[in-house]
Design goal:
Blueprint: H1 2-23, E1 30-35, H2 36-40, E2 43-53, E3 56-65, E4 74-85, E5 93-111, E6 114-134, E7 139-150, E8 163-173
Antiparallel strand pairs: 1-2, 1-8, 2-3, 3-4, 4-5, 5-6, 6-7, 7-8
Length: 175
């Protein structure tokens, strides 16, 4: 009887030890990413996201065109965002985000009775959503789509860029 009791105590001790080691696992909080879709089209588009907890993160994104393959008329795009994740794993799965976007574009507007090109800087607010996959080694693949509206330019009624698009296929690494 003592041998059986001894074996049961050892079994539960080993089980408890193994479970305590498993719960000591930590989560990574930093995610640098690059937008593969925009890179193919001639835009340098990088993102950094900091994970606040398992359900949310904040990030910043910078997009600057480097090629005239597509005539974007964009000088730069700087976006800050807050994301809320709906997945079961740590900051993974479906997400929704709100963002603010500082953008500078060259647009054709009507000035003094004629149309001319003008550099316009504006701030947009918007929403987007997407899905993020994270491998066990920290590799990230995410796709998202959304849009927002420019708010402050006096030329918004005449502009081609009254709305901003937020879209991408990002690849990155979590550490």
């Amino acid at each position: 009887m003592k041998k059986i009791l001894f074996i049961i105590v050892i079994f539960f001790s080993v089980s408890a030890f193994a479970q305590s080691e498993y719960t000591l696992n930590y989560a990574e909080f930093h995610e640098p990413k690059i937008n593969i879709g925009y890179l193919i089209l001639g835009n340098f588009d990088v993102t950094y996201e900091y994970l606040i907890n398992e359900e949310s993160g904040v990030g910043v994104n910078l997009m600057v065109p480097f090629d005239d393959y597509i005539d974007w008329n964009i000088k730069y795009n700087l976006t800050g965002y807050y994301r809320f994740y709906f997945g079961g794993n740590y900051a993974e799965g479906f997400f929704g985000e709100i963002f603010t976007n500082l953008n500078s574009v060259e647009d054709r507007i009507e000035v003094e009775g004629g149309r001319q090109n003008k550099d316009i800087t504006d701030l947009a607010l918007g929403f987007s959503g997407g899905y993020k996959l994270v491998s066990s080694r920290g590799m990230i693949l995410e796709a998202f789509l959304g849009g927002g509206r420019n708010l402050f330019s006096e030329y918004n009624s005449q502009r081609n860029f009254n709305f901003v698009l937020r879209a991408g296929l990002n690849a990155g690494y979590r550490f």
